[in-house]
């Protein structure tokens, strides 16, 4: 193995390779051959995944000054040297699945950095200097022990994808709402109790994953037309039984009021403690579908008109669900599969864009929201 490693590095130096693959080499120390003489001045991408490295050399930037991508996934690295900040051209740094307990403030000197992956480490703190990374597009800090995110994170004006699942986060910094290009925010399986009221106000934010936050009972009204993290129908077994019982009950004036209880008294309260949350658009469609489907027939056998008049375009939507839940078989009307078919792991990631076409359901929902929301959406505006 050592002879093969020496030969690989020797050939890379002789032929001025820009890419060097040293994955799965059982390395427990950084190869000194990479740092001898002038090093690999032409090297741009270094792959050292699935080894047993515990540290990085202080002169890494001096010997490999043109590194653009550095992949150190799945090692045993505990700390990275302050000199990491000297890698002026570095755009992608992957330190996932290591043993990092501390991230040095010098990380903020990587001004060209676009992708930073720190998932599955032991971090309980992120330095505020991360906010100096104005070119950063992707930040993944999932599966750590973070109790908060830096308030200065909103200075990462290029940030598009923020993943902080499986931490100990109790709140979302309101400053995140100011990120102009944020497209996906994933904070599932934390300890969130509330979300900033203006989260989702940005048109760029399309995906919000906040499921498995057991204390989270409500969502900001701006999120009702986003793709909200949800598994299947988003209801616990108890909730499904309750819904079934309600739907099968006698439909009367009193029962019709109960049937509409799925539409919350306050728009913000649309979550389920046990299994996550459902977009208000989908929740309203299910409730209306159940309400109309079980409305009783008159004495002449013809269906009576419910007390709520809906436009024909919306009635047509209710007759043609896009599918049925794999758990409870209830009808579903909008795209609510981000956990069953996660777009972020497919070729469709980032393709989703909100439609500019008039949506009759949104127009109808706007009339329901207006008593509770001081800033209702205008008809036809997604």
Automatic annotation (TrEMBL):
SMART domains: LRR_BAC, LRR_TYP
Start and end residues of each Disease resistance R13L4/SHOC-2-like LRR domain: 105-190
InterPro entries the record matches: Leu-rich_rpt (IPR001611), Leu-rich_rpt_typical-subtyp (IPR003591), LRR_dom_sf (IPR032675), LRR_domain-containing (IPR050216), LRR_R13L4/SHOC2-like (IPR055414)
A family per Pfam: LRR_8
Protein keywords: Leucine-rich repeat, Repeat
Signal peptide positions (record): none
Ranges in coiled-coil conformation: none
Cited SUPFAM superfamilies: L domain-like (SSF52058)
Protein name: Leucine rich repeat containing 28
Source organism (scientific name): Oryzias latipes (Japanese rice fish)
Gene: LRRC28
